[in-house]
Amino acid sequence: MIQGYFVPMTAFAAGAPCWADVMLPDLEAGKRFYGELFGWTFSAGSAEHGGYTQAYRDGRAAAGLMPKPDGRLPTAWTIYFATPDAARTSAKILEAGGRIVSEAVPVGDLGTMLVATDPTGAVFSVWQAGTHPGFEVTGEPGAYVRTGLSTRDPQGADAFYGAVFGFESVADSPASDERFRPWRLAGQKEEIGGRALMGDRVPAEMPPHFTVCFLVAAMDDAVRTATRLGGRVTAEPITTPGGPFAVLTDNQGAAFGVLSPK
């Protein structure tokens, strides 16, 4: 585990990032890409759930892959936040100025999910666990480690996610400044992610968005592997308090973050 980042839990606290999945045009190509990059193995796709496939790191659930049912949908990673009551969270999202994209619906006995956006349009999902609690492995190479929101309204983001999930903006963190603030859950010391200001260099057409980040053993190796497999570097590695961080794009256009230990 990387100190100061996501702590794996068997029962996720309300508001904690608990799952991530990616929607892809070509599921098999995605399995080849992420299988080699992160060392994942995969379940057989579930016909009941549109071919949804679970990825495993050393036999533990690490993420999900799903074939796009509609070509108009984005090729993108999605972060899920835990809730004990999806309907109540839906009401909070609306009260705080967000929008519900897909109402809360049961996914068999696995749980209940909804898809929403914050007031500026950043998409996220909410998960009320049933038999599927979420991540079984985090904070290890090949597994989820944190998420970050890129936004043009950082104060608005703090207010929205604070009202909906109880996120606290960590102004006293060594990593914090006006452009970036880590987030933690109320009453907890560990950071669960953060938000960053989208500066003038970011194209105006780029919408606010969450970046799902995975831990890798070595940044150089991850970049070489991703590019060899047809991916590309979207944001070159930079130094962060947690270690080198970069944004990559897979061979189908889905962007994600990678972080390597200091």
UniProtKB/TrEMBL annotation:
UniProt-listed InterPro entries: Anthracycline_SecMetBiosynth (IPR052164), Glyas_Bleomycin-R_OHBP_Dase (IPR029068), Glyas_Fos-R_dOase_dom (IPR004360), Glyoxalase_6 (IPR041581), VOC_core (IPR037523)
Family annotation (Pfam families): Glyoxalase, Glyoxalase_6
Domain VOC, residue spans: 16-129, 143-261
CDD domains in alphabetical order: SgaA_N_like (cd07247)
Superkingdom of the source species: Bacteria
SUPFAM superfamilies: Glyoxalase/Bleomycin resistance protein/Dihydroxybiphenyl dioxygenase (SSF54593)
Name assigned to this protein: 27 kDa antigen Cfp30B
UniProt organism field: Streptomyces rimosus subsp. rimosus
